[in-house]
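RESIDUES AND SHAPES:
===
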Amino acid sequence: MNTVVTTLQNFINGEFVTPAGTELLDIVNPTNGEVVAKAPVSLKSDVDAAMTAAAQAFRKFKHVTPSQRQLMLLKLADALEAASDELVEAQHRNTGQVRDLIAAEEVAVGADQLRFFAGAARLMEGKSAGEYVEGHTSYVRREPIGVVAQVAPWNYPLLMAIWKIGPALAAGNTVVLKPSDTTPESTLVLAKLTQGILPPGVLNVVLGTGETGAAMVDHPVPGLVSITGSVRAGIAVATGAAKSLKRAHLELGGKAPAVVFADADIKKTAAAIAEFSFFNAGQDCTAITRVLVQDSVHDDLVAAMVAHTETLKTGNADDSQNYFGPLNNINHFNSVNAVMDALPEHCKVEIGGKRSGDKGYFYEATIVTGAHQTDDIVQKETFGPVITVQKFTTEDEAVELANDVEYALASSIWTTDHGTAMRVSRDLDFGAVWINTHILLTAEMPHGGFKSSGYGKDLSMYGVEDYTRIKHVMSALDV
């Protein structure tokens, strides 16, 4: 039986349209390497059409009341849940992720987050009005920026699209969004769901490569450009945006440490760390990638982590048998293999370290001990199911090792001592610090990093405010 390979389209001004660009990319199912769709590479003219539609839509959308925007987002959340099966299958074709994970962690969580942003639309605040100059009243308007250009990644395609459009639309902006060139299908289903809910042109989806994204950044219309991706991509976006003084919102890489003290419950901690590390095949910028453990319990923790990791399966054709799915694409699969091939001799692979099965891009859950702080596997982002375990002796040493990387997105502390938890959470230089847990996010709290992990916040009211501008209005009292 031959699989029907669909040619995908852009979504502009409320309709699916065939772009001017004729080059097509293969969309590959990473569980088996089969081509499941063809995606166009949009040209500058296609980007211009999307920007024009978004700019025209903004003229009216900026005047839509917060209550009306709230209702639109609530309706979209309901539509998302109703279309869960379609979204799951579309995304599974592109990512190979476990279907239950997509349903629970992207569709259900995405709907919940849309409902948060719906509420946030009605909570915009500015400084209270007052007479700061005699005879004059001043107040602050918090306004939408206008058109925003957004680029989403391939690791959680649907959820990251929601993280992009949710706060932007809640604040009254219109959007041109480019999904990853390897995972566009669930985003296009999301776009289809907006028909009849959002006015035409409020959300536009343009398919393509990094060059398409660069054309979006260079376009004169957007007032803000947002990307979730690699440090390299973030630098390119920030550089391009700076040329025309656009604002940039960057959520980039991570190298999250889990700092384990000797008083922690070793068996419970080992199981949690293994699960948080290998969730979604480690393709998560907040995933634990470095375990720093007090030397007196190092061997016990490693043994317990290896034992629990043996229960976390991957590589099965039936995804319900897997804890995590494959790596997303052949280039990424090769890059993870290259990291392991380049391991220094002083490193020891305790478990994993190779491909799982003989089909697709599955990779075993891998634990490496003996790495030095200066090794690439410690310093550079692997973005796969590979973690290192290093020893420390003192609290100060633990903090120094944890902070000694260019990334500063996420971290965790594992201890039963309250004072240790408070001191170390204060001193860790990361945008998120979890205590005796990891990776959990909630719509009400901000997510974003420091240093090479970028700037700007996703989720929370802080994230919504990033998509607004501040205007001071002063009025004379006597005219």
User: Anything to note?
Assistant: Residues 99-120 form the longest helix (22 residues). The first strand starts at residue 6 and ends at 7. The chain is about 40% helix and 25% strand. Residues 256-442 form a domain with the Aldehyde Dehydrogenase; Chain A, domain 2 fold (CATH 3.40.309.10).
